[in-house]
Write a structure and sequence with these properties.
- By secondary structure, the chain is of the alpha+beta class.
- The chain contains eleven helices and 14 strands.
- It has four domains: 5-56; 72-122, no CATH class; 140-295, Nucleotidyltransferase, domain 5, CATH 3.30.420; 317-380, no CATH class.
- It has helices at residues 8-19, 26-33, 37-50, 72-85, 89-98, 105-114, 179-193, 218-225, 242-258, 264-280, 292-295, and strands at 140-144, 148-149, 154-162, 168-174, 198-201, 229-233, 317-320, 326-328, 333-335, 344-350, 353-358, 361-367, 373-375, 378-380.
- The relative contact order is 0.10.
Length: 383
Amino acid sequence: MPWNLSSVMEERIKFVIMSEQEGINFSALCQEFGISRPTGYLWRQRYRDSGSLAGMSELSRRPRHIPRHTPGHLEQRVIALRRKYGWGAKKLHELLLAEDLEIKVTTINRILKRNGLITTKLLHHSAHKRFERSRSNELWQMDFKGEYPLGKGRCYPLSVLDDHSRYGVGLYALPSKDTDSVTTSLIKAFETFGVPDAMLMDHGIPWWSPSNNHGLTRLSVSLIDQGIKLYLSGFRHPQTQGKVERFHRTLNESVLYKGLPQTILGWQKSFQDFLYEYNHIRPHEALHMGTPSEFYRCSPKSYNPTPSEWEYPEGSVVKKLSPRGWLGTSRIRFFVCEALAGKKVKVEYLDNKIIVSYKHMYIREINKDTGETTSLLTPIRKD
């Protein structure tokens, strides 16, 4: 429930009272009130410092002094935040405002430059306006971000990002890209945040297989079983997943700034710290300098470890695929998908074609005359 101007003080008081209750889940409380955790901590600390709820009244954001030079303590605060996060002036400006410190963006830039803290990495071109979903969990984007070297082996970061809010619902340090590791990670995300309506991914392992003449894998079938609609980015078009690509750039800047761990456990701790910072503290220009946590809400759809068998519409022609994923009889057979072996599919006929769907998704088009097959998984071409 976002705070209205007419009831700001009342909401702050209510928030502080609830935040002081024993056993309160502070993160959930902040989400309930529609504020970020830093803001919640700010108001609770203001109450504790003043010893009275009256101390919660809004402080003026006008500078307390108007000197010709920035006071030393303000300059030191700018430097401290820059060294802690490595962010540019716009984002630091938002953090300072949350502390009731009014410093212009241009002044922050001058402080950074004067202290040798401006680098070319801060000078990014403005991002193009991107299409985004209208609500949380309408679409999640998933991708691996390259790899990082370890003292022994490699770390493969798996990222899962909500398209609407840019909220990072998962960032996992995996020793490989195997199906079991990715499946375990996704189950953690589903159990924490619920199940999305759809997911966007590239034509990569382990959710896409180039070897079975269709692409579905055991992992992608398990996502369909949760009622998730799958979208695949176009071949050789990584810009389709622009938000997760931008997320990876921010991640890379952060880990390079703070140093590279040498173990999987070290990377996972680094990723947890980064994800909290990214979701709850770092202002996002595409969100009008808000944080993803202010815009994200968990999905009402829960993860089901044992999904029930799908009920196709009455009158549908339903066939069970063979143990190797074939459709038909021993005399006339068409290969559908090995990952769907033993599954029930719906079969429809169109001219000389057989249209195969599994649950809520069309899977394959088969030419009965030639045996040629075509994938019907939906590609996405705009972000």
